[in-house]
Write a structure and sequence with these properties.
The chain has helices at 43-50, 65-74, 110-116, 199-213, 236-239, 263-288, 321-324, 339-342, 369-376, 391-394, 459-472; strands at residues 2-10, 17-25, 53-55, 58-59, 120-126, 145-149, 162-165, 168-171, 219-224, 294-300, 346-349, 358-360, 364-365, 406-410, 416-421, 424-429, 440-443. It is α/β, with parallel strands linked by helices. The two termini are 31 Å apart.
Length: 486
């Protein structure tokens, strides 16, 4: 589900750097200007690229929300992560009415180390790693403050009844607007799906307040904005910024979630609003006096929303990915281990450390942020992390030629595995079906659209991928995937 930004900033007079990590939801590789988007202006994100480094081969930890965030927070890839799919907590824990399957109590997350190092910590936005009161409660994993959506399903609505502040529900809409309705046949009116209080506005304001309040001491701030995940019901003033000529047909809800009379404009509005939040966070850091020593990483949590059917006009929720060239020519969407489901737009800006206007094709993914942030903050890295420290790459050092392979073991969408070994990606799909799909091998730097399957020419890579998968896949009975043979 979608997009990340990391800030590591020195407070004036402080010995330790601050850290702000922003992750947005379901933002495609080509949905920001500096990665090729031509229709939706993203000036704040583009400014980060102009002042820093673009990472053109950076990947999410998973092709959907919860496991991607688990990999990010724990530094463990999908072969070792607690959470490997979007399983609801109530399936195993019927006492919870909302939230996703919880991470284990003894799983160490990034904020726990920062809190132990004397940081104030906060998570604002969408959590998705366990209900309030469970072993995955964000307050039980190093966050002093949690404000936002605990449950991904609740976050389908931008006008929910409540948001969570730690363990308390804070009502924000007496008449909430659900994120799902049955398809309609009559006139589609955007006004019918606009509530009183727009949750993202509260969350960005909370982030600004946290930065202002904590500017005199080190802090770790995790911002998980929900844009541009559907349902689409952004404020009308945001929608009206975009041409009426774009939309010749409404989305009636036939692709799921809410209808909208102007789905292209509405989707663009969500990305534009996200860009404005990034600008507001940067402005808050500048006002607090910490921007000159700020490291910013901008990326996505997985690819853009998947197709709703082979002949459907829209992707799920009314997203027109073809109109926006959302994947920038990559194959696949969210939920897929093809490039379009995993590769995410990533930018790093760090004055004095990262060269402005630079670009790197160094391989990296979400498991790398745990050791990278620890290195930036000079915090000792835990043992047995799956990621690698990217700080030398960001600071202009030589790209490591023998980095660990990138591993994905994904039980959903019929079961999929993938391994990135140097320039090659080896993948197999349909593992939960009686007959799985054949192995696929692609040389990504010369075939980013994954059009030429080299499986017959490269059997040794398949054998190597199987060896890696067997070595790197711990048993997880909640999220089982049978590792195939070569």
């Amino acid at each position: 589900m979608a997009l990340s930004v990391v800030f590591v900033a020195n407070s004036l007079g402080a010995e330790k750097p601050n850290v702000v990590f922003i992750i947005a939801d379901d933002l495609g590789y080509g949905e920001v200007g500096c990665f090729g988007q031509e229709k939706i202006p993203t000036p704040n994100i583009d400014k980060l690229a102009a002042g820093g480094m673009k990472l053109t081969q950076h990947y999410s930890g998973a092709p959907v929300c919860a496991p991607a965030r688990c990999v990010l927070m724990s530094g463990k890839h999908l072969g070792h992560a607690d959470i490997r799919g979007n399983r609801q907590a109530k399936v195993s824990f019927p006492q919870f009415s909302e939230g996703q399957h919880p991470i284990a109590k003894d799983t160490v997350l990034i904020p726990e180390l920062f809190k132990n190092a004397g940081y104030a910590t906060a998570a604002i936005g969408k959590w998705g790693l366990g209900p309030v009161g469970s072993t995955g409660d964000p307050n039980q994993h190093g966050f002093d403050l949690f404000f936002g959506y605990n449950c991904q399903a609740v976050a389908h609505s931008y006008y929910p009844k409540y948001l969570w502040r730690n363990d308390q529900q804070v009502e924000i809409n007496a008449k909430p607007i659900p994120g799902h309705v049955k398809p309609i046949t009559g006139e589609v009116k955007a006004e019918d799906y606009i509530g009183e209080t727009y949750a993202p506005k509260l969350m960005i304001s909370e982030a600004e307040k946290f930065i202002a309040d904590k500017k005199g001491s080190p802090f770790f701030l995790y911002l998980a904005f929900i844009e541009p995940h559907v349902a689409m019901h952004p404020p009308l003033e945001s929608v009206n910024k975009f041409p009426k000529e774009w939309d010749t047909e409404p989305h009636r809800g036939e692709a799921g979630y809410l209808p909208h009379p102007r789905p292209r404009a509405a989707y663009a509005a969500m990305i534009s609003d996200l860009d404005s939040y990034v600008g507001r966070v940067v402005a808050a850091l500048e006002k607090a006096g910490v921007a000159d020593h700020t490291m910013i990483v901008f990326t996505g949590d997985n690819g853009t929303t998947m197709e709703s059917g082979p002949k459907a006009r829209f992707n799920v929720g009314g997203v027109d990915a073809k109109f926006f060239n959302s994947t920038a020519g990559l194959r696949g969407f969210k939920g897929s281990v093809y490039e379009g489901g995993l590769r995410v737009p990533t930018i790093v800006s760090y004055p004095g450390k990262v060269k402005a206007g630079s670009e790197s094709n160094a391989l990296g993914y979400f498991a790398d942020w745990f050791p990278t942030l620890c290195a930036a903050a000079e915090i000792e890295t835990p043992a047995k992390l799956d990621g690698e420290n990217l700080l030398p790459v960001l600071e202009g050092g030589a790209v490591k030629k023998d980095r660990k392979p990138l591993v994905w073991v994904f039980p959903e969408t019929s079961g999929q595995v993938a391994v990135r070994i140097g320039d090659y990606k080896v993948l197999k799909r349909g593992l939960n079906r009686k007959q799985s799909d054949p192995w696929e091998v692609y040389e990504i730097p010369v075939d980013r659209a994954e059009t030429k399957n080299l499986a017959k020419e490269k059997p040794e890579l398949i054998e190597e991928a199987v060896r890696i998968l067997k070595q790197e896949s711990a048993e997880n009975p909640i999220f089982p995937v049978k590792i195939p043979e070569a």
